[in-house]
Amino acid sequence: MKRIILFGLMAVALAAAETPQEVYQKALVKERSEGKLEEAIQLYRRAADSAGKDRALAAKALVQLAACYEKLGNTESRRIYERVIKDYADQKDAVTMARARLGGSTSAHETDIVTRRVWVDAIDTEGAPSPDGRYLSFVDWITGDLAVRDLTTGENRRLTNKGPWSGSEEFALYSTFSPDGKQLAYAWYNTENHWDLRIVSIAEGTGIPKPRVLYRSDDLQYLQPAQWSPDGKHILTLFTRKDRTNQIALVPVADGAARVLKTFDWRAPVKMSFSPDGRHIAYDFPPKEDFPERDIYVLAADGSREFLAVEHPANDLSPVWTPDGKSILFISDRTGTQAAWIVSITDGKSQGAAQPLKTEMGNTSFIGFSRDGALFYAKGTGGFDIYIAKVDLASGKVLEPAKKIPERVEGSNLLPDWSPDGRYLAYIRGIGGDGPGISKTICIWSVESKEERELRPKVGYLGGLRWSPDSRSLLVWGSDRKGRKGAYQIDAQNGEATPVVLAQPGGDIRHPMWSSDQTLLFYVDSSESSSRLMVRDRATGTERELFRSERMGISQMTLSPDGRQIAFLNNDTARKSLVLKVMPVAGSQPRELAVDVASQVLAWEPNGKAVIFARSGPGRASGTELWWIPVSGGTAEKLGLAELAKRRLRIHPDGSRVAFSDGVVKADIWVMENFVSNLKASR
């Protein structure tokens, strides 16, 4: 994909004065004489796009474009041939050739499917549609309550009432409707550090209904309900146990006596789906420990046998059964972008190769079908980008407006950090999820050359990064490909990942930083019950606790430039306030510097004499702004710079520039309303 983009940029620069016909002729040479298909693809596409009123040339260029894709084994060719037949019906020669390449007729798959957006900027996408398609369940993250949205009126209604986050850390997660549409099963994190499987009625006019706890186990670290069985008797659920093993289980609605169908190691399905007859379960799963891409499997509902339904080097995930039970629909990136694919299934076994259904769907995940066969899915929108601004911290002024970098890849860059020598900016590319967009890539941008290079360490995901003091490696937190959370050192040249410290089962490691001589590691160790600020001797492995707080009480941590002090943000539950504290690395009780602190910003002034933080709250009409306070104590002073106060910014070692990531990740809910009739026609 990188090569294709680069060829495209070169074509823009070199062919600005060329006519569409000349571009087309050049493409023919690249394809037929030189065999450079990727370059030919870019030229054919440019000829078609710039052909204007010359429809014959546009159609001819598209046919050749599709032929190049076909030679590369890329199924994008089919979509382009279908486009020629649909949009250039007056160009008989091109249409005849396109029909011949398609085998005589167009596919009804994509050309007839009609999609409709039913919820813009959805609050949550991990729910399910009701059987009649009227409701969509979701988590209202304003409070963490389970709720339903009426898709005909756009009204939201909560089904639980836990109160604000300041009073309760409980929340709902994932949900699925019963076959009659009268109840919802969902996961609930409770105050006893347990995950419950609960059931609640969605009946209107009765106030907030009382839920029923169907299943709870002290041995579970996490659970995820996937789908109610078609007969309404069981709930298909994923169990994650405290020993890090994962299980597919059926939980009877009558008594909650769970039955495990299959046990995995640390790997787990992301999505599971019942066949309409209740006989089989489809799920996605990585076939190898060091192979993050997934295949699609089919498991008998009694656990007796299993089949590999879709095997491909690409990432195939999010399987759902079609309403007639004859096929499985899934998302795949095998053509370079996420697209919908379908495979025929008979008695749990695949029949032939998977076929493309709808291309270029973007960052998409399937939610499920309604009873009439409408397919609901979520499509991600928005994203994050990196910006650099020149500032005067002393006066609180922006000297040069923020400029976005890099320009080549946009919408998936976040969490920047300057190298201590000031020559490079590192950041993470990829946003969340278990697909092509997951955060697995580190980018290093040169301040001098403005060039970017990518590192792809062998990790499961990246949660954040910091440069090491020698500017030769980076410390990241996240997980390895076996799902083990911890801190890892990444070589800045070759991307080799080395574990530095691993979390205990059920725990997490965040915000690791080296001492100035890289002999000590500071990090936050979080578990179900506590959040601890730790220091670890690199040579001996001995550890010492510097500070302890409740649960996720330490939200950020950073070392002073001289490496002698630690500043961190601590959630004071008694005062319901986020507090800025500082303490010596040598160890002693921390001192409180400021209260009513916002979580977005925590940074040292380059000379180490003050800490910069963000503040917002009731009574401050100006909203969130940057503040600083002398580390020796005293009164906090307002810097202003409100435009930077809501971002996780990093200050350049020279103090004159800041880098930050800005943006928002959203998702819309869509529905394919004629999916079933279209599928029957194509069959």
Brief descriptors of the model:
single chain, mainly beta, Serine Threonine Protein Phosphatase 5, Tetratricopeptide repeat, Methylamine Dehydrogenase, Chain H, Neuraminidase, 6-stranded antiparallel β-sheet, 5-stranded antiparallel β-sheet, 46 strands
Can you tell me the number of structural domains? 3
Main sheet summary: 6 strands, antiparallel
Overall 3D form: globular
The proportion of residues in beta strands is 35-45%
CA radius of gyration = 28 Å
Q: Which CATH architecture of the largest domain is right?
A: 7 Propeller
Please bin the fraction of helical residues.
10-25%
What CATH first level of the largest domain would be assigned?
Mainly Beta
Question: pLDDT under 50 segments (min length 5)?
Answer: 1-16, 104-111, 432-437, 618-622
What's the helix and strand layout?
Layout: H1 2-14, H2 20-33, H3 37-50, H4 55-71, H5 76-87, H6 92-102, H7 108-111, E1 115-119, E2 135-140, E3 145-150, E4 156-158, E5 171-177, E6 183-189, E7 195-201, E8 212-215, E9 220-228, E10 234-241, E11 246-252, E12 259-264, E13 272-274, E14 280-285, E15 295-300, E16 306-310, E17 316-321, E18 327-332, E19 339-346, E20 349-350, E21 355-358, E22 364-369, E23 375-392, E24 397-405, E25 413-418, E26 424-429, E27 441-446, E28 452-455, E29 461-467, E30 473-479, E31 485-491, E32 497-502, E33 508-514, E34 520-526, E35 530-537, E36 543-550, E37 554-559, E38 565-572, E39 577-584, E40 591-594, E41 598-604, E42 610-615, E43 625-630, E44 637-640, E45 650-651, E46 657-672, H8 675-682
Antiparallel strand pairs: 1-46, 2-3, 3-4, 5-6, 6-7, 7-8, 9-10, 10-11, 11-12, 13-14, 14-15, 15-16, 17-18, 18-19, 19-20, 19-21, 22-23, 23-24, 23-46, 25-26, 26-27, 27-28, 29-30, 30-31, 31-32, 33-34, 34-35, 35-36, 37-38, 38-39, 39-40, 41-42, 42-43, 43-44, 45-46
Helix pairs in contact: 1-3, 2-3, 2-4, 3-4, 4-5, 4-6, 5-6
